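hiii, so i know i said id send this last week but things got crazy w the move. better late than never?? heres the sequnce for the chain we talked about at the cafe, plus the structure i predicted for it. fair warning i was half asleep when i ran it
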Amino acid sequence: MAMSYWKRWIYVFVFAASILLATLEQLYCQPQVMAWGNMTGLRVDGHLFEFETSLCVIGPSLMQVSQTAKEQQRPQYRLEGNKQTINTRLDNISIVEEVESLGSGQARVSVEAEARADTSISGVFLCLELSANEFSDAEILLVDSMASKLDPIPLFPGRRWGRMGRNSQALARGVRIKTPHRRIEIDVDEPAEIIRTMGNRFFGNSNTRIYFGVLPGAVTNGKTGKKSFLIKVSGEIDKRPVQLVVDTKNPGRRFDGIGGNFRLQNENTDAQVIDYCLKNLNVTWGRVEMPWRSWHAEENVDPIQAARSGRLNPGVHAAMSMAQRLAKKNIPVIVSAWYPPSWAVEGEMSFRSQGGLRGNPLKRSKKQSIIKSLTGYLLYLKEAYGVEASLFSFNESDLGINVRQTGEEHAELIQKLGENMANYGLATKMLLGDNSDATTYSFIEPAMENPAIHKHIGAISFHTWRGCENWTLSIWADAAKKLNVPLLVGEGSTDAAAHRYPDIFLQPAYALNEIDMYLRICAICQVKSILQWQLTSDYSVLAGNGIYHTTGELRPTQRFWNLKQLGLTPSGSFVLHISGSRPNISCVAYADIAKGVYCIHMVNNGARRQVMLNGLPGQVSHLRIFTTDQNHSMEEGKRVRVSNGVAEFWLESACFTTLMGESGE
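okay and structure toks below
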């Protein structure tokens, strides 16, 4: 008998619902994978069950371990649906790792290793590291344990035999890890060598490590090993309500809004991205390159006279035109120099790290010529393009990209170049720092300790590639307050090597981590602006049309929408203090007090939860709410009602949320 019409539709509905549920399950169980191969946990219903894995090669002893880490290898990363694939190399071992989300708190990690040369090692392993703070009370059990097939791997070099002390080694099918609030299970597709090392503060690491063998023993060229690991997590998902209080009576520093870097590097794809970003983002600060090497290649040639006679280098013209385009939109411009001309530096030009050092110091015997050359560029930019730069810097001179300075040399340049620019009537000030990382704050100390040069400092800047812990950020905040100048993030993002594995830009976890860092910086540092690296095709916040080989039409990514949503903050707003119970939540509040506009940004790095927000002015009756995550692009939701300064609403999991309200609404 033919199936009835309604029965057919019921089957279709059930089938479609099952597909939807399976899709949602994948979305709400996501392995957090770094592009270099490390997992930092599994996200279930938005809640992140934290742990860390890495790929390791153990040498003759457990004191000789090389492992995957940020900027330590040159990995390739590929994102395809629910699979993430990493190709990397440790010593003489090539490794392919595939991480697949299976839903229901599970992920499969497959690791294949191949020796590229005869190598004397103890083996290749997948390593699980358990934080001493989070797993001090953990019970760790081996599954189907049996005697090890490998010789015991000693703790110290040269002690091939003997007891392992607090460490243990066995052959097993997996590991079970239990704490009162969580459970981690790792099952291996076949018995594997498993080594457990207990943390020891004497050796600088209190964490417990569990190594799972992939390719055991000393290996010969071409030897391979492969293992598949099923990782399962379960436990309490933190859905506790959050109480937040905004203090509107003690406003802090002003925030202009988001900014961007516009260093031109790709003639074929930069223009389309720049056009799109300037049209669709509220850009309030811009940073452009000074192509110093092209501006003044020959010391005995006057670059201003050459430019006036029509011999301006095309790259210099493009950079100056970019500055002009920003100035026409009333966007303040920072000019930063990367590559110096060879006559201006000591030794042969060094574009890569040599002996632990990068870049070249400026040649002291050419000090006056250098000051004149740099000032001349800024004068010609003003004369021919109508742009007076707000600030000038050497890019990351603490590291040597590409001029290398000591803190004392940096302070001296600020004084000499600052004086010369002022003598020529330029309003351009010097940018203190423009450091490669938040960690290198000692670089700015000599300048801060010399009051005579403070008048030449227009702002302080650091880049966010490394070390943006809250305590480090507070050091930069204190420095800006001490000098009473604005603090800027000259280059904003999280992974300087990401251009080598650009699929990572499309990963939701990458986008969430980036905006979470920005909110912490805004709250702690009270920055004037964060300048995204970049608003060109380099590290692009757009995809499609050939950018990093992506196809289809040019389109915004989650990172673009995060910037656009942060850019909702009214320009010139004052930061407000916000406090309360906020597990896994970063937040910052702003107010344009004169116009009565209030803006609260929040990143929820956990599960969906209810929020009670107190302290809003009584004149605010409703809040507009916007959400960006992997499925929503600054999507506006139902307005939140405010009663007697209190707003209650739900914060969705793993998302960036913004609330906007005006007095009288």
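btw Residues 30-235 form a domain with the Beta-galactosidase; Chain A, domain 5 fold (CATH 2.70.98.10). thought thatd interest u
miss u guys!!
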